[in-house]
Structure formats: structure tokens, C-alpha cells
From TrEMBL:
Coiled coil: none
Boundaries of every Aminoglycoside phosphotransferase domain copy: 36-236
InterPro entries: Aminoglycoside_PTrfase (IPR002575), Kinase-like_dom_sf (IPR011009)
Name of the protein this chain belongs to: Aminoglycoside phosphotransferase domain-containing protein
Domain of life: Bacteria
One protein family per Pfam: APH
Amino acid sequence: MRSKDIVALARAACTQAQVPAARIDPIRLRDNAMLRTDTATIIRVHQRGELATAVRELRAADWLRSHHVRAPEPLVPDPVVVAERPVTFWEDLGSGGPAEAPETGAMLARLHTLRVPSHLGLPLFTLPDFTDRIDQCLTDETEKVWLRDYADNLAARWDALEWPSPWCVIHGDPSPANTMAAPTGGHVVDLERCCIGPPQWDQATVAFQSDTLSDPPARWKQFADAYGSDVTGWDGYPAIRDVRSFELCLFALRHAAVSEHARQQADYRLACLRGHRGLRPGDGLRLETSRRSLHAAVIAYIRAPTTTSGPVGAMMASR
């Protein structure tokens, strides 16, 4: 959907929800589009078929806020639906960038101690089924066969994990892009993956940013100190790290047609994953990533790896 169409849809939703908006500006258009009004309101336009997810996200935000975990305030209690797409309305936290690592660690530590609520209807975490994503990859069938085998290997490793602590409510994707600094402190945002799952998944998602991507190692230490433990010392951590890496690699391969640069990056990352270029994930690789998106359609997803010492294994950046 084009930018002007998303804005028109958002404007219709504002009218339906009686949210004043003389001006609406897009923030991002990928997946669940996000827009900002001139009245300090953030509009999220969800995909078709995601009404239940949109409702759950609103309820989760209210629940988190009631338990002193900072999350954006829903401004309209229920989604409105326009052109079959659920639309939700949130307080505008500003443009302060990601929350500081210690704040994120403290928020997740608090979240993971909360009693699982029965009224939210949170789903149980499951390992993603990569079949459709692999089928959509813009690569040849030989590479897809390899990707399917790799996915099967990941699933076997996942099934063999022995979780060191009970499952609880988790954010599901607490990467820096899904946190936000605000005058009142750091917040967790984008709660559509909130579920009942292993707390190690949330921790590993943050560790992955420093272990494999470009976040400074000091940021992870600050997070781990605030959280109270370091998941990278658990022998199951590499399995979660590799699942996260694989998810993001598949995203690059599905969006390789965005530009020639995106094509080159997707091919390079797959070659690294296969061990054809540099180190594989888990072999001591560290990836530098740019802070600028390759294209508006994949902003915050695909970042260009660079190194001063030749090729290294590469996966990709956050969701």
C-alpha cells in the first residue's frame, strides 16, 4: 500500500475513533505501519487478519503499566477496523531513540517476575515455522534445500533445550528498536509478540545485538548487570542466537529485490551462514552494521556489514 493510501486509511480510522488529527505523517510503512498525528498520537495500522493480535497488544500494554513496567498508553481502548485492517492509537513518546540498556534490563527483569495473567489470553511461545519464509526467499532451489535442512537442524536443537527457569510473560522481541527513551524513562513498545515463553528468549534477543551484531559489548554488560544474570553463559544460548540470526537472514533473502545493494548483502550473508565466506555464526564472528537503512521498505531490518579486517560471518540486523 502506498504512503498516501496508508495516510488516508489512518485518517479514516481517526474519524471513526474520534481522534483529532489535522496532520498525519508516516513514521514507517513496513509491516504494521506507524504514523504520527499533530495531536501527540501514534497510529498503528496492523495487517489484515490481526485483530486479535491488536486487541492483545492493547490489553498487554494496560497490564504492563498496571504492574509498573513502562509501556505506551493506549488512547483508544479497542481497535477500529478500516479496509479490514485493525488500527490502534497510542500516546506519543517522542523520538528519543532506544531505551538505555540498564533500563531495558530492569524492565525485563520486572516483567519476567510477574504472575502469568489468565485474562490476556497470551499464546504459548513456539519456534517459528520457517517453511513459508524459505519458499519466499529470492534465491535458487539449491540454496532453499540447504536452508530447509538448516531449519530442521535448528528445530532439533531447540527441542533438545532444557530451560533453566519456568516460562513466564515475555516481550518476545525486546531489541533496541522495540524500546524507547522518553522523559519519564525507558519504555517497551511493539508488544505484538508478547506471549508466555522462556525468559531466556528475551535475554538472548538483547545479547544477540552485541554478540553478533554491532551493539557495543558494554551495552550487553550493562543490560545483564541490571537484569541480574548473563544468558550467554547458559549452554542453550547458542541455539537461540542461531534461531534469531536465521530469522533475520531469511528476511534479507526475501527482500533482496529492494536494490542491488540489498541483493549483494543477502547473498553475502547467506554465503557466510554456509561457511563460504568468513566465519559461521558461533565461530567467534562479530558483525558491524550501519545505522542507516538500505531502503525505506526494510528500515531497521537490513543493515550493511563492514569490517576492517576482511570478511567475517554476517547475519543481519534487528526487526
